[in-house]
Each structure stands twice: as structure tokens, then as C-alpha cells.
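With this grant's support, we have settled on a layout for protein records. A representative record follows, to show the layout.
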Amino acid sequence: MRRVLLILFFIFVARFVQAQYVPNSGQSFQFYSMFNPAFSGVDEFTTIRLGYGYRWAGFAGAPKSINLSYNTRIIKPLDLSTNSLRLSNLSAVKTPKSKQIALGLGMNVFQTTYGPVETVGGSVNLSMHYPLSKKVKIAAGLTMLVENTKFDLSKITFRNDAEEKNTDYYKSLVANGSSKANLNLRGGFLIYAPKFYLGFSYFPLFETSIQNASIDESNPSVYSGSVQAGYSIEFSPDFTVKPSVSGLLIANGGVNMDYNVKAYIQKSSWVGVSYRDIKAAVISVGFNINYLLTASYSYERSFGKFRTFNDGSHELILSLRLNNFKKQAPYTW
């Protein structure tokens, strides 16, 4: 019976932490390329983001996560202002759309721990951006993601388990743990302009197991896709409001939505609030230290039944904008 309970525990945890990794972030807009590969290469400059999250503070074995993302353009559209002879009227020169195509590259590395469970992995994104008009562009992208989930039985203590600990099965699990590795592909589409973006991604384009866990041979996907949408409303040069929504599509047909709004003051700082369908609220604040470096912090608080078991979740994100010669702001911020 104890062995059965042990196996059931691992299967439950595996279901909870797996499913083609997506960041559990209070600032998910900062890691949209990890949800939708079409976001890689949206910005003209290179971005490097490092996020650290500490969820369910005060809860034993609380989840911790680290996300590192890199996004750039490996092929840039032709810019007549920097790649042509000086002309008196550049607007009169029409650039062929074939010369306006951009190719984006994204790379992500992540690690999460939840008590005895650790997930590590990485992904590579490729995307192509094509102009529909002078301002509106459409993009398509593909992600290859590898993740490994490992269970460390030595971190679990059972009562009255002396008999179980003497079995070869138990000793083997403690010595070797149990791990499962998956490889999957996801695809995404995006339409965007300086004032808005609308994206959709589908996760299980292809999925295979690289390594099977000794106690969990089947592990179906939980998420089937994601959606993102945002709009920018400029009330004055010093005050802009950006409402947005993002959602994870669940394989059983459900949707987990986040509803967000951020206010930007003089393009140097912002404050935001979010409501999450999982009965939680997020307050966030960010600062553009200069046109190269930004820092942001968010605090998430559950107002469901789970609020009695933890003191909220914290997340800190640092971001670098390299080659940002035009001192632009990201589309999704």
C-alpha cells in the first residue's frame, strides 16, 4: 500500500509541474517569446531578461524559478536612412517588401524547483516577420523545447516508513531519483504594430519522450496553446496606458486568463495591476534606469482558499536592451 501511495504522489506532482514549460510569472508579458515564438525578433534591438520568482512565500518547499531569455534579429529589414546615399526625400523611395523581412532568434533557459521536484530545460525560437503595411507586420515562429523533470525522494519524509525504506525499490529511488525528459515543438503567429499586438500559439505540434520516468510512463500535455493581446493608449507624451490580456488554453477545453493594465509615466517608470482567473491579483512596478537597463518587481496575492497557506509570491526581473540606438521601448511593455 505504501508503494502505491508513493507512486500516486509522484504521478500527481508530475501532472502539476510538467506540460511543456511555460513561465508561472506575474509579469508574463516580459517572457512572451516563451509562450509564443513569433515574439522573438519583434523589437529592433536585442533583449536579455533574467527573472527570479519566489512563489508561495512562507510555504514549506515553495516553488522557485529562474528564467533567462535572449531575443534578437539575425536578419534586419533594409533601413534606407542608414543603408543608402543621402536623399532629399526618403519617403519617395519605396523599399520592396522582400527587403523588409526580418528573422528573429530567441533562446531561453529555465529552472524551477518545487519541493522534491526540479525542472530544467531550454528552448530555441526562430521567427519570420513580414510587413503587411508601413506599420502593421505579421510574424510566424517555431520553438523547439527540451525539459527534464527530476524527483528527489530523499527530500520526502514518510511516517512509519521503516519497512518501506528497507525495500530495494525504495533504496533505488532514493539513490537514483526518477526523471523524465521531453522534447516538443510549438508554433505561433502574431500581428503587431506600434499601438497593438495580437498573438496565438499552439503547443503540441510535436511531442516525444526522451527519457521515461521509472514511475510515470505516461504524461499527457496540460496546455494546448496561448493567446496574447495588448493595446497602447497615449493620453499625453508623458502618460500612456497599456491594457492587455494573456491566456493559457487548457487541454480539457478551459482557459486561464490574466487581465492587465499598466500606466507609464514619462516613459521612465510604470505601475501595473493584474487579475488572474486562478483567483489572484498582481501589483507590479518597473523602472527604465536608462535606455539600456530596466528593472521590475511584482507581488502576487491569492484571495482564494489557498491564501491562508502562504504570504504571496515575489518576482524580480532585470532586462538589458542592447544595440538600442533609437532608444525604443519594447512593443509588449
User: Anything to note?
Assistant: Residues 125 and 143 are 4 Å apart (CA to CA).
